[in-house]
Design brief:
Blueprint: E1 3-7, H1 15-26, E2 30-32, H2 45-55, H3 57-72, E3 85-90, H4 92-103, E4 109-113, E5 128-135, H5 142-155, E6 158-165, H6 181-199
Parallel strand pairs: 1-2, 1-3, 3-4, 4-5, 5-6
Helix pairs in contact: 3-4
């Protein structure tokens, strides 16, 4: 069983995020789903990104760190869970998850759905990483993904990338025009296999 923290996209904590968490729980994993938007959700990516910009990336990272802190330390000050957290996220949430995973030397894994973040030159990690992304993706260009992959490998990460030709950016959300049922099912199958390997 993995202990997973799953961060929502710029749309906020929509039903699709809870459905994703339930899918992971049904496979036996413990999943925490922080609400970084204080209950606000958005119907368009433009509105969601505008709110994200209003909050600022620094504030979102602060909220993400605050949400994760209780999962890393138990009441008596010992670290929990004993084998580390798996950080996961959808689009913007993937960028947040990546930042936290690379800063946590005990991170067990990093599951990125639809989104990545830039990487510091001095980053060092051995965390296993799995990325699922549309091809092409308006927010994750080919050049960006190639550079991201090389930087992650340089940092020491074990990286696995799955691309889905013709899918929309947030193709795992059934309520969005981006949705692609076949790509979504392939993504969840790959994600569950990745998590099973981490437990192995």
């Amino acid at each position: 069983m993995a202990h997973i923290v799953l961060f929502h996209s710029a749309y906020g904590l929509r039903p699709a995020v809870h459905e994703a968490a339930d899918r992971l729980r049904s496979a036996g994993h413990r999943v925490h789903v922080p609400d970084l938007y204080d209950g606000r959700t958005f119907d368009t990516v433009e509105d969601g990104m505008a709110y994200k910009d209003e909050l600022t990336t620094d504030e979102l990272l602060r909220r993400a760190v605050t949400a994760v802190a209780p999962l890393l330390t138990s009441a008596n000050g010992t670290t929990a869970p004993p084998d580390g957290l798996v950080y996961a996220g959808l689009s913007l949430g993937g960028a947040l998850a990546q930042n936290l995973a690379l800063a946590d030397e005990r991170a067990k894994g990093l599951l990125l759905l639809h989104g990545t973040s830039d990487i510091r030159e001095d980053a060092a990690t051995t965390v296993p990483v799995q990325l699922h992304v549309a091809e092409p993706d308006p927010f994750e260009s080919e050049d960006w993904l190639n550079a991201w992959y090389l930087q992650m490998r340089k940092a020491g990460a074990d990286v696995e990338v799955h691309r889905y030709r013709g899918a929309g950016h947030l193709f795992t959300d059934p309520e969005l025009p981006d949705y692609d049922a076949e790509a979504a099912e392939q993504t969840w199958a790959g994600a569950l296999a990745f998590l099973a390997e981490l437990d192995g």
